[in-house]
């Protein structure tokens, strides 16, 4: 005992080296080899996933554009006491910086300035053109003469939001709030409040889709797991068949099915269940989004459910029956608790996929069925307001992380089974 | 056996799964109250199907099963009140041992205090008092087995079925559990129908054994009768070690007969499963009933050549060639008399006519 265990409690090897150090040395080669094996993937993920995500998160708070285009103006602007109009010095610096700047960078900056106060973009565009003829002061009067917006204090106050290199403005925007000219947080104007409604709609659609997937997927998974192999294989192919068909083809097929002159409505009219003039509006609304997304995401519910149910031995049910439980009671008390890991995995998977869904709402959602993903795409492609895209995306990411965290707290992530 | 004695009764039961093959053929079986009956047979012999029909998980294709005089074919499994121990225990993995034991009592809507008492008693019976709050997967195989046993008994069923309950245990544990189950059966006097393919398990525990083959009961009797007086070649071969001499019946004389083996030797045997002169027959003989170089007077005396000797401590297992069979086994006790046996030597084998049984050719 004394030989191998020193007084400090350190265990030594036969050579007299502490066991832990010796073990580390022995395992170092293995660790290096393991690291080398994963390093290509690590680099790939870093370049294609982690860095873009980090960049996106940075964009959601980044507000340096104007500071880089009008650095001197902002220096003197900071001295303004915000009473009356800024001093001649501010006008003068602004004049020269605008006049000497490149058109491209002014364009970017003016877009950002327009988010704070609309009108800035046209003002800068017009002024830059006219500034060419002006050589000397007094700049304040001459600028106001070119466009009287230069004399409007509101425009100058709006610039105050952009003094800091970071901003919460995009996040505020994403939840229908904004800064007023004194940098207080206020609600957007009534007619510009769109995002809170969209968030609620997105949440509602995702919850509904998850719920319907569970309701439809549970019985079929049960059947898959309990049928003899030759039938279950065939059924499995039917479940997976949608996976082999293009998402777009499936979505378009649904459009054919659900539109007002479509297959479903025609059948209902033919069967005399609805009048020809009262055809159901099943397309280009939330109903369509829920129906089509449920169908598309169903396999993601069935597969985890099936893989868990496959492991539930049928003798559990037999044992429960044998012990006197009715089939319903046995199912509720024995089968269902054992299928919970599959249920939670399926729900989490479907919900996460649904909440960020884009293509289906875009095609079948119409105006009523637009989700957050569609707004992100809109701002990304049409308005080029990438800061807002980033903020919307970051909020989505935060919601999913929160959900995952809550799930881990309640069910325990080790209980999840994806296959 | 009178009608009163028959607690479980199978009457002309047939079972087919696919409409082409009968897995159980014309089964007639009576189990009196308190008996430990084992259904023994090779896999695919239909014994588990019989058990499943009794438990209610399979329905007989024709015929009827009676429990305590009442037909039960139309009663669903949850209303039969029959306990069952499953092959892999089927303990509910999401419930503690106590919850598992309480389950059958809760579905019977018993009082909480009554449930606690019965669960406590059941745990005490299988000596697992300290394990009530464990999950099944935290227990060893033997402990899980005991919990499964306790669960099948806790609601005091009239009948307990056991479907190869010891199959998953290692040999030592299996032997220990055999005695435990036997003792519990003796203590509470419950009727048990037990299924196994392990003959030593069947011999150890049962009051009676029903040997199954090919969907039929070949023989049903107490373990000693089954071993000593098998009435067919299959049973003789399936239970214990057995020597067989193939031949034709030469003459029949009351209970005895003479069978001429293919090598031309006349063997005196009991007439068990042969009818006429000239019938093919297998004469069955237990290895321990053969005397070697004996001076006593037996009906059968033959010279045999020693082919192989295997030393097994307490006895020597000797393979010899006699009457044209070179797989003939003789068990020689390890005593000073036989110590000088050599391979290749010629010895005299002798046995009684009453120990050799002329059975069917199978």
Q: Tags for this entry?
A:
heterodimer; A: 419 residues; mainly alpha; MetI-like fold; 3 domains; two-stranded antiparallel ribbon; 19 helices; 2 strands; 1% strand; flat; disordered N terminus; B: 362 residues; alpha+beta; Rossmann fold; OB fold (Dihydrolipoamide Acetyltransferase, E2P); 2 domains; 6-stranded mixed sheet; elongated
Walk me through the structure.
The complex is a heterodimer of chains A (419) and B (362). With 419 residues, chain A is mostly helical. Chain A folds into 3 domains: 1-59, no CATH class; 65-167, no CATH class; 195-415, Orthogonal Bundle (MetI-like fold). Chain A has 19 helices and 2 strands. In chain A, helix 15 packs antiparallel against helix 16 (327-355). Chain A is flat and about 100 Å long. Chain A starts with 18 loop residues before the first helix and ends in a 9-residue tail after the last helix. The relative contact order of chain A is 0.08. Chain B is α+β, with helices and mostly antiparallel strands. Chain B folds into 2 domains: 3-233, P-loop containing nucleotide triphosphate hydrolases (Rossmann fold); 241-359, Beta Barrel (OB fold (Dihydrolipoamide Acetyltransferase, E2P)), CATH 2.40.50. Chain B has helices spanning 47-55, 97-107, 112-125, 141-153, 171-188, 199-205, 223-228, 233-238; strands at residues 6-16, 22-32, 36-40, 62-67, 70-71, 82-85, 159-163, 191-196, 208-213, 216-221, 243-253, 256-261, 266-271, 280-285, 291-292, 300-311, 315-322, 325-333, 346-351, 357-359. In chain B, helix 2 packs across helix 3 (112-125) and helix 2 packs parallel to helix 4. The two termini of chain B are 29 Å apart. The mean pLDDT of chain B is 89. The interface between A and B is medium-sized, with 19 and 24 residues.
Q: Which CATH top level class of the largest domain in chain A fits?
A: Mainly Alpha
Could you name the CATH homologous superfamily of the largest domain in chain A? MetI-like
How many DSSP helices of chain A?
19
Helix-strand sequence of chain A: HHHHHHHHHEEHHHHHHHHHH
Report the largest inter-chain contact. Answer: A-B, 19 and 24 residues
By CATH, the architecture of the largest domain in chain A is named Orthogonal Bundle
Strand content of chain B: 35-45%
Encode the helix/strand succession of chain B as letters: EEEHEEEHHHEHEHEEHHEEEEEEEEEE
Overall pLDDT confidence of chain B: 89
The top-level CATH class of the largest domain in chain B is Alpha Beta
Total E-strand runs of chain A: 2
Tally of DSSP β-strands of chain B: 20
Approximate helicity band of chain B: 10-25%
Whole-number total of structural domains of chain A: 3
Number of helices of chain B: 8
pLDDT < 50 stretches of chain B: none
Structural class from helices and strands of chain B?
alpha+beta
User: How far apart, in Å, are the first and last alpha carbons of chain B?
Assistant: 29 Å
Major sheet of chain A: order of its strands? 1-2
Q: Quaternary state, please? A: heterodimer
Radius of gyration of chain B over all CA atoms, rounded: 25 Å
